[in-house]
Amino acid sequence: VGNDSHRSTGDARERRQDPYSEVATQLEHRVTIRDAVDRPTHVIDPHAFDGNHMGERSDIGLLPRGPTSLEVRQVPLGRVDGLNVICSANVGEIVPAGRPLVVIESMKMEHVVEAPESDEVVRVWVAPGDTVRKGQLLVEVSPVPRSSAAKESNRTPVIADRADVARLRERRGYLTDEARPEAVAKRREKGRRTARENIADLLDDGSFQEYGGFGVAAQRQRRSEEDLIANTPADGLICGTGTVNADDAEDGRAKVLAMSYDYTVLAGTQGYVNHKKTDRVLEVARRNMLPVVLFAEGGGGRPGDTDAPVVAGLDVMSFASFASLSGLVPLVGIASGYCFAGNAALLGCCDVVIATEDSNIGMAGPAMIEGGGLGVVAPTAIGPIGVQT
Question: For 113, which DSSP code?
């Protein structure tokens, strides 16, 4: 549903010769006819247009109108082909004016088809996931008496238990500390906070826009999808944009990029997916000139990912991308607990480093030191705060 597209008057002859050619360019065409009891009826039909009969009786390409006592609208898509990503229309449902019925994705844009007024859904011609074409019918609706529409508008809206919506809510639920009580309890035993708590305290309430929260560790060759979703949320890196003290800052000056490795997920290590996330958000910071705040606790590179062809990791741009922000935007690093290898490399690029007294910061962790033949070293012996100042 939308504004009619128009062609130049030079095309008028072509339209008269072939009215069906307008299917590719017309979004909505109304043709007024009258039924047996002289009630005005409107049919929206992409084939019923010849350039001369808008709003008048026309016999060109009329579709069956359904019950003759009802005003029937049939809604075509129009200009774009696309994938029907959401279809929220249910047969028999009374929908208020402006209610989205179908959302079409095309060329990375969403096109919303809304109910033109309070209508009853008579027929749905498409299903979620369908590919729709220009001029294809989507939804057939019938107007309801005003009294029925008023009663429907006074009802408390009830959202149907759709499987995709339920799945979305379930996935979002895994991105909370409440979903992982055992992991949170271990943090509490060590007197430490969670990554999400740190992000929440840093940013203004409600301002955090998370990037890549549904990512999981690239280990599907040896772990189930359910296991990865439950135990590797966000692939151990919580990142996104938000504001800090927005009430006191000048317009546009409060927004920052916040990144926090999550030690409850594979010891805050850097995996294939969270490197991709890092690259993405650092580009956002560069493009928008956002200060970066990094919570760097974690164990560096992760050797256990199986789903990506990695040899030496020389294609990982995260470190160069982070370092290249130096001098462009403020970089603030925060360390508490163990911060080794790749995590420490990012921390070392920061303009300001804030560390707690129990921090251990080193360019190699115990496993790498032992693997290099340098013996067994306790993590607390690597880069204690006394050698950092």
Answer: E
Residue 86, classed as helix, strand or coil, is strand
Written as six digits, the tokens of 130 are 């369908």
Mapping DSSP to helix (H, G, I), strand (E, B) and coil, where does residue 51 land?
A: coil
What end-to-end distance do the CA atoms of the chain give, in Å? 65
Per-residue tokens: 15: 């339209």
Strands (E), 318-381: 331-335, 338-340, 352-355, 360-362
Q: What is the C-alpha radius of gyration for the chain, rounded to an integer number of angstroms?
A: 29
Q: Distance between CA atoms of 298 and 183, rounded to whole angstroms?
A: 15
Q: What is the pLDDT of residues 56-79, one digit of tens each?
A: 322 323 333 333 223 334 444 444
Alpha-carbon distance of 65 to 72, in angstroms, equals 6
pLDDT digits (tens, 9 = 90+) for 274-290: 999 999 999 999 999 99
Q: How far is Cα 270 from Cα 299, in angstroms, rounded to an integer?
A: 8
**pLDDT digits 0-9 by tens, 273-332:** 999 999 999 999 999 999 999 999 999 999 889 888 766 666 789 999 999 999 999 999
Q: Is the pTM of this model over 0.85?
A: no
